[in-house]
Amino acid sequence: MYYSTLICVNYYREQEDLILKTLIDTNININISIFYEKQDSYKTIRDLTYHIGNVGVELKEGNQNKQDIDIAAFSYNDAKYIRREMQVNGEEIYYVYIYLTVFSKDKKELEYLINKVEGISQSKGIRNKKSIF
């Protein structure tokens, strides 16, 4: 058997559909592994406060174009919201790791399947990296 694994490194922050549903519905030999890891709340709040301060200074300087200012403002508001939820409501931050392992008896078929899985996941807004061993 030949195996190849994709590591999901990023996905859209807001989803209207189940992001892995399309992959599950395919007829591909795939193993989906999902792991999560709790982050240290104190360190996360400290990092968010540092980020809020830096982005706040960038917004006040205003030496950037309109698009950069919009992205910075979006990031600034998100960081403030997350910090407030953690401090006031006791929310916690978790990292989520998703591994998509595809396997096949034929190497050519495996390459075809891994490209198909990568295409499907990219259409759902999931960015992948191939792990090559």
Structural features, described:
The protein is an alpha+beta fold. The protein folds into two domains: 2-38 and 96-131, Lrp/AsnC effector binding domain/regulation of amino acid metabolism (RAM) domain (Alpha-Beta Plaits, 2-Layer Sandwich); 41-89. Helices cover 50% and strands 27% of the residues. It has a four-stranded antiparallel sheet with strand order 2-3-1-4. Helix 2 packs antiparallel against helix 3. It is elongated, with a radius of gyration of 19 Å.
Question: What's the structural blueprint in terms of helices and strands?
Answer:
Elements (H helix, E strand, L loop, with lengths): L1 E10 L9 H5 L4 E9 L2 H21 L4 H24 L4 E11 L2 H17 L2 E6 L2
Antiparallel strand pairs: 1-3, 1-4, 2-3
CATH third-level topology of the largest domain: Alpha-Beta Plaits
**CATH H-level superfamily of the largest domain:** Lrp/AsnC effector binding domain/regulation of amino acid metabolism (RAM) domain
Oligomer: single chain
Element pattern in H and E: EHEHHEHE
CATH top level of the largest domain is Alpha Beta
Spans of at least 5 consecutive residues whose pLDDT stays below 50 are: none
**For the terminal residues, how far apart are their CA atoms?**
14 Å
Give the beta-strand count: 4
Estimate what percentage of residues fall within beta strands.
25-35%
Number of helices: 4
Coarse morphology: elongated
Radius of gyration: 19 Å
Global mean pLDDT:
86
